[in-house]
UniProtKB/TrEMBL annotation:
Location of the AB hydrolase-1 domain: 6-227
Keyword Hydrolase: yes
Record InterPro entries: AB_hydrolase_1, AB_hydrolase_fold, Sec-Metab_Biosynth_Hydrolase
Species, as recorded: Microbacterium aoyamense
Pfam families: Abhydrolase_6
Name of protein: Alpha/beta hydrolase
Length: 239
């Protein structure tokens, strides 16, 4: 079996550029990598799109998801050619569980007080609501530890998440049938790290790595993130 293609899935308030340092690391190590855009409009829609990308790939795939991207890969990972999942500072939802339900069981992070709600049009329906991070709070809350000049760029180019995605239940939980790994960002100000720890423990991940890092651990510790992704690749190559 050929070595898996690695598909990196970004989360809310970010885009594919959030994975750039890890993408560079993995490419330099000789891996095939793809980093698709995610619209952040609905969990089911985003997962369906990522799954379509995965199923267009000839051969096995490792899916890695950051933050909300963890919830997305937990659904999209049910694709037959997905052979492993890597959750990075991510949400691990059970079948029928929503982001709001999982997060609601833990004290709020600093993010909740710094969200901005903005209507957006939907053809033939009532307007939806975009959720974003206040630009002035973004560097400290979402991009702590990132070069301040880069954090300013991320703040003004963030991709919002539709409010509807918070309440949408996961249709499946791919981690129940696919080997999975996880990274906890113990200095996370966006997601309470205990949300990450709980989800990982409940899912019985093969390995969990704790890094003293902020939410954008892919920006601050790309080598460590790439190392865990490579472990997933190696494990699936051996099976």
């Amino acid at each position: 079996m050929p070595s898996p293609t690695i598909v990196l899935v970004h989360g809310a308030f970010a885009d594919a550029a959030s994975w750039a340092p890890v993408t560079r690391e993995l490419l330099d190590r000789g891996h095939r990598v793809l980093v698709p855009p995610v619209l952040n409009r609905s969990l089911s829609g985003d997962a369906a799109y990522v799954r379509s990308v995965v199923e267009s790939i000839d051969g096995p795939v490792i899916l890695a998801g950051h933050s909300y991207g963890g919830a997305v890969i937990g659904v999209a990972g049910a694709a037959e050619n997905v052979v492993g999942l890597v959750f990075v500072s991510g949400y691990v939802l059970n079948e029928g569980e929503s982001l709001g339900e999982l997060q609601g069981g833990f004290p709020d992070s600093e993010l909740a007080a710094n969200l901005v709600y903005t209507p957006y049009p939907i053809d033939g329906a009532d307007p939806g609501t975009d959720v974003s991070v206040a630009i002035d709070a973004f560097p400290a809350v979402f991009a702590a530890g990132v070069d301040p000049r880069a954090a300013e760029v991320f703040a003004v180019s963030q991709r919002p998440l539709s409010a509807a995605a918070f309440g949408e239940p996961a249709a499946v939980a791919a981690w129940k049938t696919k080997p999975s790994w996880g990274i906890v960002s113990s200095a996370d100000h966006t997601i309470n790290p205990d949300v990450e720890r709980f989800g990982y423990q409940r899912a019985g991940l093969k390995e969990v790595v704790e890094i003293d890092a902020p939410h954008l651990v892919m920006q601050t510790h790309p080598s460590e993130v790439a190392d865990l992704v490579e472990k997933a690749v190696a494990a699936t190559n051996e099976s």
